[in-house]
Amino acid sequence: MLTPRSEILCDRTSAEAFEMNCYTMRPGSVATPLEGVKVEAVAAYNTSPEHRQFHPRAREDCGYVLTVGGTRIYIAGDTEPTPELKVLRNIDIAFLPVNQPYTMTVDQAVQAVKALAPTIFYPYHYGQVEEKTDLDRLVSELEGVTEVRIRPME
Asked: Where is the Metallo-beta-lactamase domain (predicted)?
């Protein structure tokens, strides 16, 4: 689907990986690439002292809140629960990374979902390293809080 007319919105780290022009977003910036579509950049970084080297705050990596036709979708990027994440409101669908040691633990994901209060939560990045995410526990701890949708990671 990528064409010469395609516009890519991404953070600086991602922009460096692409061999084309990108609209580079920083935490806190907002873009409206199409009518009816709003993109808000949210800081994405590790907060645990033992994991800060994986996604340091100073790098200004981003997650994004996409608002499309009134639906707010949060795609967290690689992050742990941050103050910026915890103040997001009116999130309909949340995509959060649950993968140790690089992103959230199950406990952190539960904390983040409870702060965001989305209608639907999709975990991602799980099962990609030796330390496997306990998806059963994740689903159990969020029962009655939100609908958790698990998709096979390949």
From this structure: 18-126
Residue located via tokens 């390293």: 129
Specify the 3-state DSSP secondary structure of 50.
Answer: helix
Partnered with residue 75 across adjacent β-strands are 64, 95
Domains in the chain: ranges and CATH: 27-148 (3.60.15.10)
pLDDT in tens, 47-66: 988 888 888 898 999 999 99
3-state secondary structure of 93: strand
Rounded-to-integer distance, Cα 81 and Cα 73, Å: 17
**How far is Cα 66 from Cα 68, in angstroms, rounded to an integer?**
6
Q: What is the pLDDT of residues 19-29, one digit of tens each?
A: 777 899 999 99
Give this prediction's pTM.
Answer: 0.91
- Residue 104: per-residue pLDDT: 92
Q: Which of 42, 49, 6, 4 is nearest to 26 (CA)?
A: 42
Alpha carbon distance 15, 85 (integer Å): 22
CB 146 within 8 A of CB 113: yes
